[in-house]
Design a protein that fits this description.
This protein is of the alpha/beta class. It contains 8 helices and 11 strands. It binds 1,4-dihydronicotinamide adenine dinucleotide (NAI) and oxaloacetate ion.
């Protein structure tokens, strides 16, 4: 019996619950949201699918889940320029979440922005092994990168490391084609604005995040042991510590099985160092 817990069943948490049920990934989904009418509506809507999945709203049952998805808190509106600007709004939500989750022994997936800092904060407050805290966002950034590469006539694997935010690091070196620094910067600039176009049009990104969260859940539960771009609490990898940052990580049933240290070209290496320094400043918020 596999159990998935989702805290915050708004746009992303709700859709991730639905997709996990529709794809038959788990036997039970435990959901909770501070906004009671929404919670009730999401539970009913899930039940009305008739899918063979147990739905619970027992907050205490979250602690016993195999996977816990943290998707509660404030999202961006067009008035909020960067994901990092959500830090102060969402720190209290991270704190409340960690209090509820003390004693959790499964795998955490952090979604709430600024995701890298919040993943670091949850890890610190829960006091669990860093391999059990996975920050989600790199798969989504990589899917967006793949689209821009295709438009530029470049094929090959699309990997994005670094911050899930303005300091994201697309790995052009992995594609086998170098469009030059000018074109790299132009593509990066479009990637930085990719989600805001969706937020402006429909109030938030939903299908992209929910789909890739479901794929991450499947990778964990099936113990696929494959490398994905995930935010991991670093301990010297890529020359960085005291932060959680997007890196290639082998993911399986126990969470992060290993972090792969890839060679980056000079442009990527400089961007990665900038991303690390930037996210470290956000993570310091959790070091006090
Ligand atoms: N990492 C990623 O790739 C992505 C991250 N996000 C982030 O995920 C978060 C959620 O986004 P949306 O679902 O669009 O927002 P939303 O506003 O639709 O849903 C958030 C939900 O959290 C609930 N909530 C707030 N505080 C809570 C608490 N203490 N306990 C339980 N529930 C609580 C709210 O009532 C609301 O229903 C945002 O921070 C957003 O920026 C969104 C998309 C992708
Ligand atoms: O951009 C946002 O605020 C939501 C998000 O993280 C994404 O869709 O990548």
């Amino acid at each position: 019996m596999t159990s998935l817990a989702i805290l915050g069943v708004g746009k992303v948490g709700g859709e991730a619950a639905f997709l996990s049920a529709a794809l038959g990934l788990v036997d039970e989904i435990v959901v909770y949201d501070v906004y009671e009418p929404l919670l009730r509506a999401q539970v009913l809507d899930l039940q009305h699918t008739g899918l063979d999945v147990a739905i619970s709203t027992e907050m205490a049952a979250m602690r016993d889940a195999d996977i816990f998805v943290f998707a509660a808190g404030t999202p961006r509106t067009p008035a909020i320029k960067t994901r990092a600007d959500l830090l102060e709004a969402n720190v209290p939500v991270v704190e409340r979440c960690s209090r509820h989750l003390q004693g959790f022994s499964g795998v955490v997936i952090t979604v709430t922005n600024p995701m890298d800092a919040n993943n670091y904060g949850l890890w610190k407050m829960l006091g669990i092994d860093r391999r059990r805290c996975i920050g989600f966002g790199g798969q989504l950034d990589s899917a967006r990168f793949a689209r821009f590469l295709k438009e530029a006539g470049i094929s090959g694997p699309a990997w994005v490391l670094g911050e899930h935010g303005d300091h994201q690091v697309p790995l052009f070196s992995k594609t086998g084609a170098d469009p030059g620094v000018g074109e790299r910067e132009a593509i990066l600039s479009r990637m930085r604005g990719a989600s805001m176009e969706v937020i402006r049009g429909k109030g938030g990104t939903v299908f992209g995040p929910a789909y890739h969260i479901a794929m991450l859940i499947r990778t964990i539960l099936d113990d696929r042991r494959e490398a994905l771009p995930c935010s991991c609490v670093l301990d010297g990898e890529y020359g960085l510590s005291n932060c959680s940052l997007g890196v290639p990580a082998r993911i399986g049933r126990e969470g992060i099985l290993g972090i792969e240290e890839w060679d980056l070209d000079p442009w990527e290496g400089a961007k990665m160092a900038e991303a690390g320094a930037f996210v470290q400043t956000l993570c310091r918020r959790f070091d006090v």
